[in-house]
Every structure is written in structure tokens, then in C-alpha cells.
Amino acid sequence: MAAHRDFLAVHYASGVFLASGRKEPRTGGVILAQGERTALEDIVAQDPFTAAGAVAYTVTEFIPTTTAPELAHLAVTA
């Protein structure tokens, strides 16, 4: 678990990861991230949980057209 947390910390520090946490019921987790799909796929492939075969990531793209004021910098208006 420590290696996974270190992995998360690196990508929070780089600004790619925005929020993360476990799902309820506890069937996995969610990471809200920003970036190009191929770059994100490369990043999640480096997660120690992935290397151990413990998880399989699904990258789901979305276009944030409406956000809370605190997240306005993420909104796509074009």
C-alpha cells in the first residue's frame, strides 16, 4: 500500500491527479485526473498495484463543461 500511496503522491505533485479515493461499496477506487488519454494510460500502468496484477484501470474521458467555482479552471467552454 505504501508504494501505491507514493505513486499517487508523485502524480498529485505533478498536477495530473486531482482527487482519488475508494468506491463504496469497496469494489475499487477512482482517480480524477487531467491529461491526454495515452499519457494517463502510461501513468496508471506504472502503479505498483497494476504491476502486481491487483488492479486493472479503465480510463474514462469526459469534457467538464460545468464545474464548481473552485474547479472553473478545468472547464472546457469551446
TrEMBL record:
Residues 1-62 form the YCII-related domain. It comes from the Bacteria. SUPFAM superfamilies: Dimeric alpha+beta barrel. It holds the Pfam family YCII. Belongs to the YciI family. This is YCII-related domain-containing protein. The lineage of its organism: Bacteria, Bacillati, Actinomycetota, Actinomycetes, Micrococcales. The gene is yciI.
